[in-house]
Every structure is written in structure tokens, then in C-alpha cells.
Design brief:
The complex is a heterodimer of chains A (415) and B (339).
Chain A lengths: L6 H26 L14 H8 L7 E3 L5 H7 L3 H9 L33 H14 L6 E6 L6 H13 L3 E7 L2 E2 L2 E2 H4 L8 H4 L3 E6 L3 H16 L5 E6 L17 H8 L3 H11 L5 H24 L69 H10 L2 H6 L4 H16 L1
Parallel strand pairs in A: 1-2, 2-3, 3-7, 6-7
Antiparallel strand pairs in A: 4-5
Helix pairs in contact in A: 1-2, 1-3, 1-11, 1-12, 2-3, 2-9, 4-12, 5-6
Chain B lengths: L16 E4 H15 L3 E5 L15 H5 L4 E3 L4 H13 L3 E5 L10 H8 L2 H5 L6 E6 L14 H5 L5 E3 L4 H13 L4 E6 L7 E4 L12 E4 L4 E5 L2 H15 L4 E5 L2 E3 L3 H11 L2 E8 L4 H12 L9 E5 L8 H7 L3 H12 L2
Parallel strand pairs in B: 2-3, 2-4, 4-5, 5-7, 6-7, 10-11, 10-13, 13-14
Antiparallel strand pairs in B: 1-8, 6-12, 9-11
Helix pairs in contact in B: 1-7, 3-4, 8-12
The chains are: A alpha/beta (415), B alpha/beta (339).
Chain lengths: 415, 339
């Protein structure tokens, strides 16, 4: 389960989990002081998921947080003040007070897409991000999160199915925290492991202990690498527990005591601290340093947030529409030759080719290629498929062709 | 490279002739994709098959699999993905096979696509287009005019053209617009209406109505297929000495209030004709605008000729009764002219 990380990476994961929790603790205080104008949602006990998965992304990659993914935003580089100000509806917040919570994004620098409250909608949107990134040759991966509850939506299915048909470089983290507001997961989904749903889309999935940050990171890292290599979308189910209610107003009395006790004993930060200490990756001194750093940072960030004004009333009328170049210069960033997607190079025979049934009438015989970046996928695939499976099966290494060969062999056997 | 009825060649994009409404739309997409590699097309059966109505015929042959994408039957996924693509600077065109199915993606459009710029400064330059409207016996799920669901949504633009020239020019303008644009194509017009379009590139500005026929006795406001019905009625009215000014709204959001008010201040009477059902149709909105901004100019009630407040029925006898026609417009206009 444990994967070798650098000392710095181990410490980073710890820092971000502590920061995540501290940011949320600060917001609970702000909430109790009536400084947060709307609702406040907690990711207490789920920090390892947000932090571990987002930490697997590169700077150029894209993510879209859900309501309990403050940790992912922090890892991606969002300053805590932005999170405070969003909740406090301040003028200097990323949405200038037009929306709250984690509902904000940054297209240009951090590559964050803002969520909306309707669950699952980010799945097709991030699929589109992944497809566009591939089309432009950017070699990016798109990641988003969904809950056990959100996995019941129609867009979850539509989005994942579409991502799979497109082999989009997309990673979906399914946080199974056992509760969708007051409804237990068993009343939402009649399968034991939500990761099993990946089978329906013909994609791979992982099941991870969502309270083990290193496990979370390792699975996410592998998924991100595979998605980036063109293997298509991957679903990761992270098993965890929502320690607080749906939001601050909800005491969550519907949660059985034993369940709460069980999970409280599995706090991801406590577990990780024990691990770091036993592995001699963290001592009392460096722990204190991290705590002091976070305390100082958040004091400064909170002060800034509290001093920011409310937005002026007239702002409500502004920016419904983009007014053109003066407002946004929209230019795709090409990282592959445009000639590849423009005539004459883009010209193809407009026919489907169906494996095993020959090509359509008038076709040159090529498959509809699904490219990732500059990889000539179609030709490589047809070569590997032509190899006799028995020969490949004895080879070591080359994991992917092996799998493909085995699959095609078993298909043939069935026929 | 396979021959696709010559559609894979550049010549197919040339205009400068009498073309159908449908061909104008195809040319607009073709030329925009030719002009800008950031323009991509996705939808159900838009690639190999060339679209259910063949509006995208030849596009796959010329632009390839990466730019012309056949999708699963998943309207929410298609529109969501297009939105995501637009965040990276692409300008996707999404086809709804029939515009009726756009409501399957209602949440994506009204909550995700439409609100992004206002809320988090994220423009979504994308076009959602598809065949709409009745009169072809498509029945209750292939004949809808759902434009007003979206006219009620700040952040969207809504276009509903009536001529090949406008269809091409407005679709090109929509592709180049930085906002999400809904583009309704009345399928009754697809192959019935022909018009001349110039060779070479042109656009028609979004948000501008157009006076199709000048007149002084009353103003008829309309759009899409009903624009032609209104012109037909105006012809008959002229025989009786009533000169109707017919205005083609072309864009429903944003509405060109200036042109509407200018005409009504001249004629002092206004009749709105649309194929959409009556309650909640744009006619009611226009009546309210006239009450607010031109009350003193009105010499009679603002009247409307619309479809019935029912689903679109299938049988020709029923559908004919459901839809407005030139006779209904003529009768209403005559009544209004008496004031």
C-alpha cells in the first residue's frame, strides 16, 4: 500500500491536511460569530482524500472541487483568504460575493473549475476539459470528486460513460462517506463497492482507504499517470465517513453512535502523524514548526478576509455577459501543430470501421483513431492486436499490450 | 481519402448562390471550422451520418474525428463536455438532434453554462443548435419551440432566424461570441426556404431585429417560420388597404427593444405572432415592454397570435388547428386595425 515518497512529499501531505483542518476550524469560529453569511460544510475526517488526490496532479492539470474539497483547493494553490472571503461573501473574494463556499474557479492560472450545487454536473464538464486538453496537445489530466449520494445522479452516468467512450484523461474520486445528507449509502446505492460501477463503463477503478493519505495519494498518482498515458478515465472509490452533519445546521443525530466511534478512532491526521513519527519523518520540533506556520498564516489570512468590504449593491447587475475581447480574450493554447487538425491532414473517410466486420464501404480501412497527444494510437493498436496472443502472454513487462492481447484472446476463445 | 459527394472539398464552402436554409447553416459551420481550429462539433450522429437532417454533412470528412464527434445519447454529457471544452478556449458547436431534447440538459445549460461568467468570471463560448418547430407532423416530442425556457435565463443568448442569409450570418456570429448562444433552426424552413447569400465571409449582429416589410397601420412582430406566415398575411392585408409593418425579431435574447419601440411609435398598434404556445411566450413579454415604454403611443391592445396552450399534437388536422397560420394572423390584424 505504501509508496516511496520523498521526505518533502511526506511532510507536504501532512502540512496540507493540517492546513485543511485548520482552515475549516477557523471557519467554524467565523460561522459562530455570524461572519459567514450562508452555510458551512465540513470535510472533517475526509482531509486525506482531498489532499492526497489533488497532490497527485501536476501544476498544468485541472481540477474541480466539490463542497468538501477545500483541501484540494489548498494543494492547488488557493490562498486560505480566498476560502474565508468566499464564505463571508466579501468583495475581494474570487466571486466578489456572487457565490459562496468552494464555488469559485480560476481558468487562467490555477486551472480550477467552479462547482455548482447540482451534483454530478462536474463529471461531463471535466470530461470536456480533459478532451479539450488532449485536443490541444496539452497532456493534462482533469480530476473531480463526487459523493456516494451524487453518484446516483443521471449526469454521473452520462458523464462517466461519455468520458469512457472518449478515453478522456479524467480521474473521478468517489468519496464514499456513507451519508448523503441523512440518507445512508445503502438506501442510495444497492452495491457494496461503488467502484464496481466502473465495470459498466469498461474503465478501471480502485478502492482506497480514504483515511490513509499515502494510500490515497498513491492510487491517485497511478490513476493520473495512467489517464495521462491515454488509458482513459479511472474511478477511485475512497471509503471514509462524514464526521459532521451535512452542514453546520445539521447535528446528524441519525448517525449510529458505534459508527461514529469507529471512524473517529480512524482520524486521518492522527493516523498519519503516528505513521510519520514511527518512520521518523516527523518529530516534535518539525511538527511544532508546521503548527506555528499554519497559525501565523491563518491569522494573517483571516485578518485580510475580515477587513475586506461587502460588495457594492450595484455589482449585482454586472457581468451577466462577456462583452468581448475587452472582457475576455479567449484563445486556445495550442501545444501541438494545428496542421494536425486542419485540412488536408484532418480529412478522413466518413465511415465507421467495426472491428471484426471489416471497414465500411469506401473506407481506406483505418480505424477511427482516438489520439492522445501525439501518440499514433490507431496504428500501434492494430499492430499489437495482430501479434499472436500466446507469444505475448509469455513476455514480461509491457503491461498494457499484454492485457489487450489477453482480452482479445478470450474474445476469440468465446467465438 | 474517400469521396463524400464532394463535401470534403473546400469548394463546398463557397456561397454566392441561392441556397436552402439548411445549406446556409451547413456552410456557416463549415466556414467557421475552416477559419478557426478551436471550433469543434459534437452531437448525436453528427459525424458519419452527417446529422439527422444532414446539416453537418461533409464536416467529418474534412475536419476529422477529433473535431467532429459522434456522441452517446447523453444530452447533459454533451453540453457539459462542450462547456468544459470552452474553458480551454475551444468554441464547440453542439447539435441537439431535435431541439426538444435540449430539456434533457436543462440543468447543465441554465445552471452551469449560463451562470459561469456572472459568478466566477468564466465565459463559455459555445453554441447549442438544433431543429425546432412544428408543421411537419413530428408529434409532441419532435416539434417543440422551447426558446422561452432559455429566454428566461440570464447569461444565455437566444437566436431564432427566418432566412438563409440570417441563419448563416447569425450562426457565424454565435460561434464567435464569447457567450453561450442557443440557436434554433425551424425545421419547416430547412428545405422549403431558399435565399441568396453572398460569397465570402459575413456575420449578422446578434440582438438586432429587422424590418422585413414597411408599413404604417400596424406592426407585426414575429420570428422564424411565423415570420413568413406574417409576411403572407401582410400581403393579404395590403389588398384591403392595411399596410402592416413586419419585423423579424431574429434574436429573442437580448431583445431589440429599440427597433420594436420605433415601429410601434410609428404605427401605434402591435400584433405579436409566434409559434410558441401563448402563456409565457415572448408576446407577453413584449406586451409588458410596450406598456412600460410606449403606453401613450398605443391606439389599441397589444394582440397575439400564437399556438394553443397544449402540447403539439400529431394528426395533421390537430396540428393545423394548433398552429397559427396566415388566416389567423390576417383576422387578428384586421381586428387590431379597426382601433
Amino acid at each position: 500500500m505504501k509508496k516511496e515518497l520523498t521526505r518533502q512529499q511526506y511532510v507536504d501531505l501532512y502540512y496540507y491536511m493540517r492546513l485543511n483542518r485548520a482552515v475549516e476550524d477557523t471557519m467554524v469560529k467565523l460561522f459562530r460569530q455570524n461572519k459567514i453569511v450562508g452555510g458551512l460544510y465540513s470535510s472533517l475526517g475526509q482531509e486525506a482524500i482531498s489532499v492526497g488526490s489533488a497532490y497527485a496532479l501536476e501544476k498544468k492539470d485541472w481540477l474541480a472541487p466539490m463542497i468538501r474539497n477545500i483541501g484540494a483547493l489548498l494543494v492547488k494553490g488557493v490562498p486560505p483568504r480566498d476560502i474565508f472571503m468566499q464564505h463571508m461573501a466579501k468583495y475581494d473574494s474570487p466571486t466578489k460575493g456572487k457565490d459562496g463556499t468552494s464555488h469559485f474557479g480560476d481558468l487562467d492560472n490555477l486551472h480550477i473549475v467552479s462547482p455548482i450545487s447540482m451534483l454530478g454536473d462536474l463529471i461531463p464538464v471535466m470530461t470536456g476539459v480533459a478532451m479539450a486538453g488532449r485536443y490541444l496537445g496539452q497532456k493534462i489530466v482533469a480530476m473531480t470528486w463526487i459523493g456516494d449520494g451524487g453518484s446516483s445522479t443521471g449526469v454521473f452516468h452520462e458523464g462517466l460513460n461519455f468520458a469512457a467512450t472518449q478515453k478522456a484523461p479524467f480521474v473521478l474520486i468517489l468519496e464514499n462517506n456513507l451519508w448523503a445528507y441523512s440518507t445512508p449509502v445503502r438506501k442510495q446505492v444497492p452495491v457494496e463497492n461503488l467502484a464496481d460501477r466502473a465495470k459498466a463503463y469498461g474503465i478501471d477503478s480502485y478502492i482506497v482507504d480514504g483515511n490513509d493519505v499515502v494510500a490515497m495519494y498513491s492510487a491517485a498518482k497511478e490513476a493520473v499517470e495512467r489517464a495521462r498515458a491515454g488509458e482513459g478515465p479511472i474511478l477511485i472509490e475512497a471509503k471514509t465517513f462524514r464526521r459532521l452533519g451535512h452542514a453546520q445546521h445539521d447535528p446528524a443525530e441519525y448517525v449510529p453512535k458505534e459508527m461514529r466511534t469507529y471512524w473517529e478512532a480512524r482520524d486521518p491526521i492522527t493516523l498519519y502523524e503516528k505513521y510519520l513519527t514511527s518512520e521518523k519523518l516527523l518529530d516534535a520540533k518539525s511538527k511544532k514548526e508546521i503548527e506555528d506556520k499554519i497559525e501565523a498564516l491563518l491569522a494573517k489570512e483571516r485578518e485580510f478576509a475580515e477587513n475586506s468590504p461587502m460588495p457594492p449593491a450595484e455589482l449585482a447587475e454586472e457581468s451577466v455577459y462577456c462583452t468581448g475581447d475587452d472582457c475576455h480574450k479567449i484563445r486556445a493554447k495550442w501545444e501541438r501543430p494545428v496542421a494536425e487538425v486542419t485540412p488536408p491532414k484532418s480529412s478522413v473517410a466518413a465511415v465507421w470501421t467495426v472491428p471484426g466486420f471489416g471497414s465500411g464501404k469506401g473506407s481506406g480501412g483505418a480505424n477511427a483513431p482516438i489520439h492522445f497527444g501525439d501518440a499514433p494510437a490507431a496504428t500501434e493498436k492494430s499492430v499489437s492486436e495482430r501479434k499472436p496472443p500466446a507469444k505475448i502472454a509469455t513476455k514480461t513487462g509491457a503491461k498494457k499490450p499484454l492485457k489487450a492481447a489477453a482480452a482479445s484472446a478470450s474474445r476469440k476463445a468465446r467465438r | 481519402m474517400a469521396k463524400m459527394n464532394g463535401a470534403g472539398t473546400k469548394e463546398a464552402a463557397a456561397g454566392g448562390a441561392q441556397v436552402t436554409f439548411l445549406e446556409a447553416i451547413r456552410q456557416a459551420m463549415f466556414e467557421e471550422m475552416e477559419r478557426d481550429p478551436a471550433v469543434v462539433l459534437l452531437g448525436e450522429d453528427v459525424g458519419v451520418y452527417g446529422g439527422a437532417f444532414k446539416t453537418s454533412e461533409g464536416l467529418l470528412a474534412r475536419f476529422g474525428w477529433e473535431r467532429v464527434m459522434d456522441t452517446p445519447i447523453s444530452e447533459s454529457a454533451i453540453i457539459g463536455a462542450a462547456c468544459g471544452m470552452s474553458y480551454l478556449g475551444l468554441r464547440p458547436i453542439v447539435e441537439m438532434q431535435f431541439i426538444d431534447f435540449i430539456v434533457c440538459a436543462f440543468n447543465q445549460i441554465t445552471n452551469f453554462v449560463a451562470k459561469g461568467h456572472y459568478l466566477w468570471n468564466a465565459p463559455a463560448p459555445m453554441v447549442i443548435r438544433g431543429p425546432s418547430g412544428g408543421g411537419v407532423h413530428g408529434g409532441p416530442f419532435h416539434s417543440a419551440n422551447p426558446e422561452m425556457y432559455f429566454v428566461h435565463t440570464p447569461g444565455l443568448k437566444v437566436i431564432y432566424p427566418s432566412t438563409p442569409y440570417d441563419a448563416k450570418g447569425l450562426l457565424k456570429a454565435a460561434v464567435r461570441d464569447n457567450n453561450p448562444v442557443l440557436f434554433f433552426e425551424h425545421k419547416f424552413l430547412y428545405r422549403r426556404i431558399k435565399g441568396e447569400i453572398p460569397a465570402g465571409d459575413y456575420t449578422v449582429p446578434i440582438g438586432k431585429a429587422m424590418v422585413r416589410r414597411e408599413g404604417r397601420h400596424l406592426t407585426i412582430l414575429s420570428y422564424a417560420a411565423m415570420m413568413h406566415t406574417s409576411l403572407e398575411a401582410a400581403e393579404a392585408l395590403a389588398q384591403e388597404g392595411i399596410e402592416a409593418e413586419v419585423i423579424d425579431l431574429r434574436t429573442l435574447l437580448p431583445l431589440d427593444e429599440e427597433t420594436i419601440l420605433q415601429s410601434v411609435k410609428k404605427t401605434n398598434k402591435c400584433l405579436v405572432v409566434h409559434e410558441d404556445t401563448k402563456t409565457g411566450g415572448i408576446a407577453g413579454e413584449i406586451a409588458a415592454i410596450l406598456c412600460e415604454k410606449a403606453f401613450d403611443d398605443l391606439d389599441g391592445p397589444v394582440m397575439r397570435v400564437t399556438s394553443l396552450d397544449t402540447p403539439v399534437p400529431y394528426a395533421p388536422t390537430l396540428e393545423d388547428h394548433f398552429l397559427p397560420n396566415a388566416k389567423k394572423v390576417f383576422t387578428a390584424a384586421k381586428e387590431l386595425a379597426r382601433y
